[in-house]
Fold:
Amino acid sequence: MVLESLITPMGAEERPWQMFFLGILFSLVGIGFSVWVFEGQSSLVMVFLIVMASIPIVFNTMRLEEKKDELDYAETYLLKEHAKALSLYMFLFAGIVFACAVVYIFAPETKLISLFTVQTQAITDVNSRVAGNVINPDALPLIFLNNLKVLIFCIIFAFVYGVGAIFILVWNATVIGVALGDFIRSQLGTVTEVLGYTTMSSYFQAISLGVLRYATHGVFEILAYFIAGLAGGIISISVVRHNFGTPKFDKVLLDSAGLMIISLVVLFVAAVVEVYITPLFFV
Structure:
């Protein structure tokens, strides 16, 4: 069990930026093995392999956060402690997105279809429901409700499976990575078609546009999912430890309820940014 032993939860919370590189490593190993052993189903197998590599650090971090809930800490202190875990998860997520985007940008055209089939189809389905990059206030309730459905899935998966939310989040990371990679690749293709070549500045411009396109609202959206997943996971671990019906469990439940409320607020902010701010850059 090599990958899971590379970093401990305490070490990750002290240096969360390391999780970015761990996310890249998990992704490259997962993609490599999926193509090598299960080429025809690599688009889904890679998700499961990345999830398998991520489970130990995610589960142990949730267990650490649940133990903090059982101690006599003020709620404000607990939220600061949970923020450490959330930063850890966000860096892990960013690493997965980065790795998938890089692989998509540089992979041969003939490999892209088999390598990211399911992710590409998911992006196509989403784009078919979006009426262009225009500000549309009427879309706010629909976007919020769609995101709320994913958030509820994160809570349920986290509660039932402990770290079940990591599957949804890794899946979203691969989809966003493919979308980001496709956007950058298409921008570079446009520059090549017009100028006949690509300069270093063109690469930076395409990458910057791609990151801006998905990060403006995506950071808030993914953060909301992580907060909800952490809340569900903490409750799940507390139940597994047979704390149900004790004062400790009541404290865990209260803390998790606070996290869920925060996740709803952040999710609404993400929807507002997606509707009113993101289109300003891509009209």
